Records
---
Amino acid sequence: MNPNAYIVLSSILFCLGLLGFLVRRNALVAFMSIELMLNAANLSFVTFANVHGNLDGQVAAFFVMVVAAAEVVVGLAIIMMIFRTRRSASVDDENLLRH
Amino acid sequence: MTPPTIEYGLIAPLVVLILAVVAAVIVEAFVPRHTRHRVQLGIAVISQLLALAFVTVGWNDRPGQAVMGALSIDGPTRMIWALLLVFGLLAVLLYGEKRIGGGSTAFAPQANAVPGSLAEREAIAARQENTEVFPLFSMALLGMLVLPAANDLLTMFVGLEILSLPLYVMCGLARRRRLLSQEAALKYFMLGALSSAFFLFGTALLYGYSGSFTLADVDASITRSTQALPLLLAGAGLVSVAMLFKVGAVPFHSWVPDVYTGAPTPVTAFMAICTKIAAFGAFLRVLFVALGGIRWDWQLLLAAVAVVTMVLGSLAGLVQDDVKRMLAYSSIANAGFILVAVVGAMATGTGLDAGRSGSVSGTLIYLTTYGLANTGAFAILTTVRQAGGEATSIDAWLGLARRRPALGAVMTLFLLSLAGIPLTGGFIGKLVAFTAAWQGGYGWLVLFAMAFALVTAAYYLRVVYVMYFAEPNTETDIVHPGWPTGIVITVCALGTLVLGLVPGFALDLFANAANFLR
């Protein structure tokens, strides 16, 4: 198996996630972009596990899924709290703390 | 198949903290509300004292790896654990302070109630207290202990997340100015999650390069192949970005002023020092144990980061008129000063040549002196109030030392220590840290650092000037602190003085704890 295609794909996914985080205003969409970046990392983990012929990378993918789930719990709680206070989830509206 | 071995003796402090978290969650469910605060504070303090006792008892044990090589319990790990537990104790005392807030803590009584709503007013009227911060605190501290001890990148990632997730929540729990606090939580969370993603992708690339997560295996792969593969450099870069984010170095600092200002002051005091200790500990381990072979690639880059961090932290701090925000910029500048010590890697792996002060001990001493002065300053910050809430604007601090000479003198001590004036701990910290970089051949960087240390001194001394030479602001209440904050201020002041006057014993202690296990 030639791993290059998978690595290129995962890099593209990672960059797409980063781009999404930087340009989207809605906190939920920005957060989804971060999840995309985590999944890009997962794809490289399993690809490299295949390349090296050991299971470490596949185990890592499971760790990432668990941590991502925990992050979703905390993140959605914070975004919900903000939304209930301000009726908006746009990251541009959060501008009380400025120089 | 053989069952995994777990060296409970080596990881006893971690086990104690895990049990404390579980106990605190159970207490939250079963203990009546009015006694909960006392019980939670007791559990947090006792568990940390117990963990500290385990660290001290095992101080001279042979360094070893624990839990199938996932954790490496060596000199730096034990030193960092001791520091984290001491500063954690100081921070949790600030969490427990009730007298300053007129019988309530710094945390929102009902964090899920919309600010200004009926539910919030009812919770305040019923004198509810948010005691969930204590299990969150212990959990964050647990993550901080795991992070610098982690011997492979995956464990490091898990430690990083255990540390970060509770901190995101705690940032949003301020009792007053809740909109600011919630905003701080959102900013910290979004950027923190982004930095985790960077760390993870970097880990994936390093795994692809070496076929293993273990730091020593990455090092072995670097020695085996002479050409620096793009995979290695990209992976090392991404992992470093995440670490630089956690310590708040430029250009990954944008969250620091906002989050430090918006978060409840006890939380700010906690993360200002403990997150820095844990992140710098892990960063040093990654740099020296895994990436020592390519140190010619990272040293100059980190030196550049240190320079811009010092420039921005010191110059932007000059124009702040809010003491809490000024301390946030001071924390950025200090991250730059610590990076100066990190860069002067004398001998990779240990960071120490025989008889010389190395990067690891220099960094840790600097963090200790900075932490003492910084925690003390934040503790005093909580006692200066207007209309019941903290008054962090510099106008509120006018003539503070004239009204309360003792408090003013202690605050002056902390600020002088932050500025690095001789006879305070801060001077020793700067001396040792900069010596490490000087001996590592980074004289120009040390000259830069000394110049910007003078600039930061200007803004610390401005606060001192305002406290002594301005007409007192009579609208400001300087509240008498309760025993927890009193203990914190006393310990920090004594520690700053002792480290400044008789540093010898501490320097020996730190120098002995500088060898990473490989």
Note: Chain B has one domain: 12-512.
---
Amino acid sequence: MSETLPKNNIFKVIGASSLGTLIEWYDFYIFGSLAVIIGHQLFPEDAGASALINTLAIFAAGFIVRPFGALVFGRLGDLIGRKYTFLLTLVLMGGSTFLIGLIPSYKTIGYAAPILVLILRLVQGLALGGEYGGAATYVAEHAPKNRRGFFTSWIQTTATLGLFLSLGIIVITKNILGAESFADWGWRVPFLLSIVLVGVSIYIRMKMHESPMFSKLKSEGKVSKNPLKESFNNRANFKMVLLALFGATMGQGVIWYTGQFYAQSFLENTCKLEFNDSRYILLWGIAFATPFFVVFGAWSDKVGRKWIMLTGMLLGIIFYRPIYKTFLSDTSEENFAKNELVSKIQGSPVFVAVPNSNDTLRTVETKFSFKDGSGYSKVITDTVSLSKVFQRGTEVVKNKILPEPIFWKFVGLVFFQILLVTMVYGPIAAFLVELFPTKIRYTSMSLPYHIGNGVFGGLVPFIATLIASFEGSTPLSGLWYPIGIAALSLVIGTIYLSNKRDETLND
Amino acid sequence: MGFLIIQAINKVGLTHTEIERTNAILQWGIIIFIFFPICLGLMIFGYYAFKGEYEKLES
């Protein structure tokens, strides 16, 4: 059936699927990007309870719930069809995102606020767990047999573009409203905007027809009665689920998260780049690299999926440490000091009383500007005791602004990392679809995908921070986690993955 | 898994307040809860690979 579909129809299918998936990724990412502000607005001021619920909301939603969403909606998609299942995931995601934007502050409704955030965040994670498998399966089952990689690669652009859209809208909204208004109420705008985007996507998806392969299966009475049992209780299929996870999606997940999320977080929190600079670097890197999802997806139709994905993992293993070492060295104070200092402006001291003590914290911020347009702030916090003895506390350098040549060098380094993302991620939808029979495809491919990305990839920040806390570790030590996981996937994939493409997807 | 459990015990032991302790237990509990079946899966994969199950794929 896919071979007879007119060309303009396949692009309508891709457009309808991709738009909805992109919006779902956008909805998921804006929460993570605005987590600190949400914490201040919707959580109690004392660190205790808020940290607890915050942990559940941010942490659990990404890790536990996505694979469960994969199982729940995967099963539904194999029972009732692709179209209605991933219409449902879109409604759930859009609705929960919009409602997050409407939650009154903690000061207004008390503990109901963080509890509502938690519930809605978990719904987001569940919906996302069901979305990807449906979209990839839906497009693949429409695509001509020799161009499956090309057509499914459009779906593969949506996660990165969703990140791009979320960063872009947050930066634009914040710059228009100002930092204070944004922190006060403007943060709700990206959430509320989602309902417009979701509404359009629902309208488009309602007009889509069911996947031809699933329709054929249904007309022949061959729909699975128990997709979960057939996926995971059947040895032949279960071993393919394991191979897909350990030989492909596990490594792909860590490369994906390191090249995008960890890169931005490292630049902002370790290198201490200024808010806009760290995001603009990622935005430019994404803009330049995104077309390569389609390039590598198309190329995989000619040369196979395996070696493109594994080469992406290998290059990450080799180049991550040199790249991040360059980030550190180029943003060091010593490097800035090589430039001619133009101005050094010290602000007025700010005094804050220390609770339950006679001491006061004295904070002074000094702004350094250099001839090449770069600069940074140095914040020194001292403790002033009753006897007026100053005890030097912390000295923090932050808000670094890079000189233009270094800025574009960093864009290049992030672009390279995202290029690796396109190598591992571009072909993987077609790869996963080709591993499993139609009647359990949605279930079987969703689980390894969301474990690989949600668990292994999503844990990159947590485990990187954990490794950095070990005695003797350096700021680069956290990279051993993605390097180690990618290496394991590389070995398993090299030995056990087949480069043979399943031309027909017939069962 | 042993490494994760040792890290969990270590990190929970380093906490100072009750809430920090609860947070650490919660985070590490989630990690171990998630990774336990994944580690089982890896062992099963290794068993299948040892048995030559994946060598039969092309045929």
Note: Residues 235-270 of chain A form the longest helix (36 residues).
